Amino acid sequence: MIAIAEIEGIARAIYMRSIFNFEIRESISAIVIIVVAGIFPEETSGFVKTRVDWKETPEAHVFKADLPGMKKEEVKVEVEDDRVLLISGERNVEKEDKNDTWHRVERSSGKFSRRFRLPENVKMDQIKALMENGVLTVTVPKQEAKKPVVKAIEISG
């Protein structure tokens, strides 16, 4: 079975060769999405794949997800199964007017879901989420590193 990384690599190589031909590039992108959706449907639910950055600072783990045009009411942030952060939501399809003629539909719609296993050093009860300008920021504070307790042992003799 071919892996998703192999598909991405092949698509990237073809894409780079056709970088100046917009129609070929767009067709390749559509084909790759269809193929990946058929092989890995759980990775391609609605949005092809919601982009999420995860960085670790000395104080917290910070997740940033690009969700342009979405409202906070359309997004859910949950913790499931002991330290699995779940970011999910749904972007609804724009209502069609029968008199409209669409020339291109590129924006994604449908459900999306991303899961991240959190490390053990987090404060699960202090997770915060903020939605601003189409970017969801989830901050997961870290516990302070436990300093080893050193006990001096008296040497007899």
TrEMBL record:
Database matches in Pfam families: HSP20
Single GO cellular component term: cytoplasm
Compartment(s): Cytoplasm
Alphabetical list of InterPro entries matching this protein: A-crystallin/Hsp20_dom, HSP20-like_chaperone, Small_HSP
Predominant subcellular localization, coarse grouping: cytoplasm
Residue ranges of coiled coil: none
Domain SHSP stretches: 43-157
Keyword annotations of the record: Cytoplasm, Stress response
Family membership: Belongs to the small heat shock protein (HSP20) family.
Protein name, UniProt field: SHSP domain-containing protein
Organism: Acer yangbiense
